[in-house]
Structure formats: C-alpha cells, structure tokens
Amino acid sequence: MTKRIFLRLSVAVLLAMGMISCAEKSEKSGGEEAGKEKSSAKIKVLIIDGQNNHNWVATTPLMKDYLEKSGRFEVQVSTSPRPDADEAAWMAWRPAFAKYDVLLNNFNNEKGSQWPDEVKRSFEKAIEGGVGLVNVHAANNGHKGWGEFEKMTGLLWRSKEEGKRYVLDADGKDEFVPVGEGPDAGHGPQHEFEVVTRDQGHPITKGMPKEWRHSLDELYHGQRGPAENMTILATAYSAPEQKGTGANEPMLWWIPYGKGRVVTCLLGHVGRDDTEQMLGIKCVGTMNIIERSCEWAATGEVTLPVAKDFPTKDEIRLLK
Ligand code: ZN
Predict the structure, then answer these.
(1) For the chain, what is the mean pLDDT?
(2) Which CATH number is 41-299 given?
(3) pLDDT of 118-162, one tens digit each?
(4) What is the distance in A from the centroid of ligand 1 to the CA of 58?
(5) More confident residue, 215 or 16
(6) Burial bucket for residue 259 (CB in 10 Å: 0-12, 13-18, 19+)
(7) Residue 105 Cα to ligand 1 middle (Å)
(8) What is the pLDDT of residues 88-120, one digit of tens each?
(9) Which residues surround ligand 1, an ion (CB under 5 A)?
(10) 316 Cα to the center of ligand 1, angstroms
C-alpha cells in the first residue's frame, strides 16, 4: 500500500466514523445539538392521580398531551384507588415509582385517605435515589402528616400551627415567619395576577420574562411546612385588596431530596368539574413551567425552549 492510498483510506474511515456518529446523534436527539446520553433518550414520566379536589380527570390528559407533544417525554399514568375503595384495591396499587425519571404529582388525598405505608416508602426511596418529582397546584395540599413528603415539598397547605412560612419581602429578601404567627394557608378570590421570576439563572426559568401576567387562578398564600433547603424560582404578590397577605408568596420552588430534585408549582387551579374553563392550568406559562420542571427534575438540565407564546408583562396567553 502506498503512502497516498493509506492516507486516503484513513480519511475515508474517519469521515465514515464521523458520519455514523452524527447520524446516531441526530436520530437520538431529533437533530438538536448532541448532548449527554441522558438528555437524548425520552424521559419517562409517571403522572399520579386518582384523588383531588380539582378535576384530575381533565387535567391529567391535558398535561400528558402537552408533555408528549414536546417529543421529549413518554408519559404513563397511575391512578390510585378512590378513598372509599376496599383493602384489595389498595393492596393492588403498587406503582413502580423507581422505574421512572420523574413523577408528576396531580394527587390530593380526599376524605382523609392515606397511601399504604409500603407505597409511601417506595415513593420516598425512588426520590431519594434520584427520581424527580413535580408537584402541581393542590398536590401540596395532600399527604398531611407524612413527614418525608412534607420535607421534600417544603411548603404545604397547612395551618399556621403546622409549620413555618417563607415569603420574600418587598425587596425580594427572605422572610421566615415562625410557627403560630401570621396567616394559615389560604387564598383570596380567583384573579389574574403577575408572576415574578426570582431566579432567571435557573434552567427551569432561564429565558422567562422577569414579570409575566398569569390567567385566572388561585393565588395561594401562607403556605406552611419545614421550608428547608428551598430555592424560590418565582413569586406572586398577594394583594390585600384580593384578600391576600401583602407578601410576595412563593409560586415555584425546588428542594433537593437525596439524589432527587423536587419542584413545586402552585399555579394551575381548575374547578372540581368540567364546568370551569380551567384557566389556571391552560395558561401557557403554567404548562411551560410544568414541562421544563419535569425535564429538569428528571435530568438536571433543560433543553425545551421557553414557549414562543409565553405570557408577557401585559398579556395573558392561553393554550389554543
Ligand atoms: Zn385550586
């Protein structure tokens, strides 16, 4: 073999290798910039529902469709037994939490029912082992008295006797209110309000407007809990004229739990039945936050873009 032929062959082999490797990358990541192995496979999401004082029958498919349309997720649903279900139904409900990359929590216990201890332990173990968790709206109302869930969620719908409160003052500084002081968890009448992005460097909120207009929703205030290791990503001002607290109430935050990342988004109210228009969750801002939170909780990075029709400072944007 002459030197020249050898050189040509080497170049051909290198080119072929390069082409193969490019083809693999573009097939896996849909032509986007090739990322780490974890960012190229579809993220496995499990939506948990079955009980909620909000219309979970309508919101689960809405979130499932939105996530799947992004092309980034593969979504399964686990529907718990109803609160009055018999022992056999509860014994049969054993979701394989650890098999997923992220759990999307659309569950709020009804009539004081509790998950079986075995299910609680497997949930805790999964998050601790690195499965992500995203709580939406009333999901933070649930599981009263389940200490580990309360720890990973940070702030919950509880009375002032059941935990401290964490808000931001007028200057955006942390303000902790002790147990027993200040308001209980609550909300005023539903209204449109401004959401303020407090951490524009975080992957979930990066690129979102500093202030944006949210559609008709409940503005939760006075949320209570352990509030440890919380990073607040967005707040909303709870106006006294809307029977609010006059504080900047957390709307979106995250907490590490073992190797897992837990994101809680309080936006996303809908009524109990389908007579309401579900404007809280049909806001493009809410849905974009949910999908980006799912991606980040699962992988630690966000490749999904900020929605092109994301709400602006003055304009509400609803899903079409
Ligand atoms: Zn609600």
Answers:
(1) 90
(2) 3.40.50.880
(3) 999 999 999 999 999 999 999 999 999 999 999 999 999 999 999
(4) 14
(5) 215
(6) exposed
(7) 14
(8) 999 999 999 999 999 999 999 999 999 999 999
(9) 218, 269
(10) 19
Q: For residue 25, give both structure tokens.
A: 């990358």
Q: How far is the CA of 269 from the centre of ligand 1 (A)?
A: 4
Q: For residue 53, report the distance from its CA to the centre of ligand 1, in Å.
A: 8
* Distance (Å) from CA 272 to ligand 1 centroid: 9
**pLDDT of 8 above 60:** no
Q: How many angstroms separate the alpha carbon of residue 301 from the centre of ligand 1?
A: 29
* Residue 223, beta-bridge partner list: none
**What separation in Å is there between the alpha carbon of 220 and the centre of ligand 1?**
8
Q: Ligand 1 centroid to 267 CA: how many Å? A: 8
Residue of 124, 78, 130, 80 whose CA lies nearest to 104? 78
Q: Residues 47-75: what's their mean pLDDT? A: 97
CA of 311 to the centre of ligand 1 (A): 21
Q: How far is the CA of 187 from the centre of ligand 1 (A)?
A: 9
- Asked if residue 275 has pLDDT above 70, the reply is no
Give the Cα separation of 210 and 234 in Å (integer): 9
C-alpha 260 to ligand 1 mean position (Å): 26
How many whole angstroms from 186 Cα to the centroid of ligand 1?
10
- 254-271 average pLDDT score: 97
Is-above-0.70 flag for pTM?
yes
